[in-house]
Amino acid sequence: MRRLPLPLVILAALFGVVMLWLVGASLVPPGVLTFEPQSAPRGDPLAVDTATIDARDSDLWRYFAFGRGPLVPPDTAGWDLAVRRFRVIAAGEAARLDTIAFDSLAHAPRDGFVATTFDRDTLNRALARWYRYSLFSHLLHPKRLVYVLRSRGGRYAKLEFLSYYCPGPEPGCVTLRYQLLEP
Would you say residue 43 has pLDDT above 70? Predict the structure, then answer.
């Protein structure tokens, strides 16, 4: 009886271990942070607040104003942020800050802002990849980055994404914490 070559046996064993790990990882239910959609800001406009925008409908943009909360069409004047599923755009401009924590940012930066391009595929390049996608769990996880939005009226707000899930968990509820900033 002829024996299999040792490198082939080792390779088959490694393949088996990887397959077991992949199957096991897909069966373990992931811990997902979920939030209920909100109807209005909860407190002082200059304090840190959180908002959950219900963007489960992939055909409709959902609008949000930092001073008023979610806006319901046709009353969308003065919106600061719009969300459609995982896509997020700014009415004015946005900047991504890679090296600073949310709590330590007190003033808006002078430069680095990117305008939203309103086209067939509307997007803001600073906000385009605010999440990491997990190939194994098929979940979106917010990157721990800080973004600054400059509104069309010249106001500034810092924000950080917290979650993408409604209770269930069901995708499409973008939760962020934010605070208005001094220029």
Answer: no
Q: What is the pLDDT of residues 143-160, one digit of tens each?
A: 999 999 998 888 999 999
pTM for the predicted model, two decimal places: 0.81
Domain positions in the chain = 49-181
Closest CA to 83 of 97, 74, 71: 71
Query: Kind and range of the H or E element at 172?
Result: strand 170-181
Answer yes or no: is pLDDT of 29 > 60.
no
Q: Which residue's entry shows tokens 């810092």?
A: 158
Structure tokens at 79: 């919106």
Closest CA to 65 of 35, 41, 36: 41
The two structure tokens encoding residue 167:
């209770």
CB 164 within 8 A of CB 174: yes
Contacts of 13 (CB under 8 A, 6+ apart): none
What is the C-alpha separation between 156 and 158, in angstroms, rounded? 7
Q: What is the DSSP string of 58-107?
A: TTS-EEEETTTEEE-TT--TT--EEEETTEEEESSEEEEESS--GGG--B
Is the Cβ–Cβ distance between 172 and 157 less than 8 Å?
no
Q: Quickly list DSSP for 30-68.
A: PP--B----SS--S-TTS-EEEEEE---TTS-EEEETTT
